[in-house]
Design a protein that fits this description.
Layout: H1 2-21, H2 40-43, E1 47-48, E2 58-62, E3 66-69, E4 74-75, E5 81-85, E6 92-95, E7 100-102, E8 111-113, E9 125-133, E10 140-142, E11 148-155, E12 162-164, E13 169-171, E14 174-176, E15 183-185, E16 190-192, E17 195-197, E18 204-206, E19 211-213, E20 216-218, E21 225-227, E22 232-234, E23 237-239, E24 250-252, E25 258-260, E26 263-266, E27 272-276, E28 282-284, E29 287-290, E30 297-301, E31 307-309, E32 312-314, E33 322-325, E34 331-332, E35 335-337, E36 350-352
Parallel strand pairs: 1-3, 2-5, 3-6, 4-7, 5-8, 6-9, 7-9, 8-10, 9-11, 10-12, 11-13, 11-14, 12-15, 13-16, 14-17, 15-18, 16-19, 17-20, 18-21, 19-22, 20-23, 21-24, 22-25, 23-26, 24-27, 25-28, 26-29, 27-30, 28-31, 29-32, 30-33, 31-34, 32-36, 35-36
């Protein structure tokens, strides 16, 4: 009797659960049945570069705004650019995706824009995450306003590593062993945390109102860095090419610049670390050192109207001047040599030893 009662009770409970669960509406809504999966463009909205057609002078042409990416290494052809961006593109991102854009003998630029100066509009072009090397021209030649180059290597190109226009940003990039200059940027740009090495021309050439910060620039065939007007050079390390040159390691040609907290290293006799050729510059807290006693001129100022305080030059040697500053006309902290450092109390003194 008990087992029969238990079976009956269980059956009633199961029936109740089935009724409460329900089977749903067996009458679907009117209208055609739509897709239940996402379109491919929603899963990967970016466009592979290798699907883009080319033209007479480029392997692939970006002619519409959007997001693009490489799926493999791009190999160049003689007489052609690798990737060309047309002038009508006002917003585009190219993710190299860890791959290289590789040139061949006789090739043109690796990545080029059809923008001609002066450029009237902001184009907002961003290129990131890869290598552009071995092109006959520049690795990157992009005169667009507000272009960004992030985490890229530009190496072994026949022209400049990167040539960018106004309002450019380069961050965490390497420009190395290019036959032209390492990095060239227009006015109002930023070059941050970059390594620039062994380029045949200048290391970094910057337009007005540019900030260069946290970079390492060495073994340039000419000046390591050239500033014009109203720019900032801060917390950057540079050196002179390992053979005598008439050019200084850093040349400041314009007014209103702030050159602070940098370190220069000279390893040639008679070398000049920092030369300032105009007025209104703030030069403070820099260190410039020679390798041994190589008779260097750490800081050379050929124009009046500058503030020069708290700098230090080492490796002056027996014939080096340490400082070569025209007077009167500049505001200069006292220059203290190694014999007087211990007794100096002026907080704005410049040191030579």
């Amino acid at each position: 009797m008990k087992s029969s009662a238990l079976r009956l009770t269980g059956a009633l409970i199961l029936a109740g659960l089935a009724r409460s669960a329900g089977a749903g509406d067996l009458n679907p809504l009117p209208g055609p049945i739509g897709p239940t999966m996402k379109a491919l463009s929603a899963v990967e909205p970016r466009t592979p570069v290798d699907t883009l057609p080319g033209d007479a002078d480029a392997l692939h042409v970006i002619s519409q705004p959007g997001s693009y990416y490489l799926t493999s290494e791009l190999i160049g052809q003689a007489g052609k650019n690798g990737i060309k961006i047309t002038a009508n593109v006002l917003n585009a991102t190219i993710d190299l995706n860890g791959f290289a854009v590789t040139g061949v003998p006789g090739s043109l630029h690796g990545i080029v824009g059809e923008f001609t100066a002066p450029v009237p509009e902001y184009h907002l072009i961003e290129i990131r995450n890869g290598t552009v090397h071995l092109w006959g021209g520049d690795g990157l030649n992009l005169a667009a306003k507000n272009a960004s180059l992030l985490r890229c290597t530009l190496e072994g190109n026949g022209g400049n590593g990167a040539t960018l226009g106004l309002d450019a940003i380069l961050r965490a990039c390497i420009a190395r062993s290019n036959s032209g200059k390492g990095i060239v940027v227009g006015a109002n740009s930023m070059v941050i945390d970059c390594l620039v090495a062994r380029n045949t021309g200048r290391g970094i050439e910057a337009g007005d109102c540019t900030t260069i910060r946290g970079c390492r620039v060495f073994a340039a065939g000419s000046e390591a860095i050239v500033l014009s007007n109203n720019s900032v050079l801060d917390v950057t390390e540079y050196d002179h090419h390992p053979h005598p040159l008439p050019a200084p390691a850093v040349r400041v040609t314009g007014i209103g610049n702030r050159i602070t907290r940098n370190h220069g290293r000279l390893n040639v006799a008679g070398g000049v670390g920092l030369r300032v050729e105009a007025a209104g510059n703030h030069i403070a807290d820099n260190t410039i050192g020679g390798t041994g006693s190589v008779n260097i001129t750490g800081l050379q100022v050929t124009a009046a109207g500058n503030l020069i305080i708290r700098n230090s030059v080492s490796g002056v040697g027996t014939a080096g001047t340490g400082y070569d500053i025209i007077t009167p006309g500049n505001t200069v902290g006292p220059i203290v040599n190694s014999g007087n450092i211990a007794t100096n109390s002026n907080p704005h003194a410049n040191y030579a030893f």
